[in-house]
Design goal:
106 residues; flat; single chain; 4 helices; alpha+beta
Length: 106
């Protein structure tokens, strides 16, 4: 398998590799989670403010053992293309929302 991969990528120039890496039909974190793990159950929210659509987190089973799945999710579907360009982990609460988080003292 490694030899096949090396042979395939050796014929691509830098631009072709970039296009392949950014292809909208490439698998994303949720695709891998559903293919590789059993009983994947996604967790949402950070318990203080909101759900970050760029971060996927969930519990699953892998080979009969419990596992935690964490990854970055980008979405390239036309209805949610804004997520594809802005899916980056949050850096905390925006200044305008800091006073609106329940139970949060700053």
């Amino acid at each position: 398998m490694a030899e096949l991969k090396r042979e395939f990528y050796s014929h691509l120039d830098a631009w072709q590799r970039l296009l392949l890496a950014r292809h909208p039909q490439r698998p994303y974190t949720l695709d891998y989670a559903r293919m590789l793990f059993e009983d994947f159950s996604e967790i949402h929210g950070d318990r203080l403010f909101a759900d970050d659509p760029a971060i996927v987190c969930g519990m699953a089973r892998f080979g009969g053992r419990s596992a935690m799945v964490i990854g970055q999710q980008k979405d390239a579907t036309p209805r949610r293309v804004w997520r594809a360009t802005s899916a980056k982990p949050s850096r905390g609460l925006p200044e305008s929302a800091a006073g609106h988080a329940p139970g949060r003292e700053i």
